[in-house]
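Quick log. Single chain, no ligands specified.
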Amino acid sequence: MSKEFLVRIDLSPPPDVDEGELSRLRQQEALRARELASQGVLLRLWRSSSNWGNWGLWRCASKDELMRLLGSLPLRPMMAIEIHDLAPHPSDPACENPPS
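-> predicted structure:
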């Protein structure tokens, strides 16, 4: 059974990072995100308008699996990550059987 997680990622490259290396890592990051999306793990991704961050909707079997997948991101050493476990809400407008 899969669970969904809302993940907040803030990226903070060190001030002395080589711009060429950062560009290379960002390209690898985009490729990895596409791989995870094609596997049905990364469902949605939104950019934060205030900084180099994003919010993502992820689906996997467990939080441990999610942590392993997040660890596979090329920019992971530069990331602060916040994970929110999600559960169905009875008043969700997308719910097929809303409460009466």
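The longest helix spans residues 19-38.
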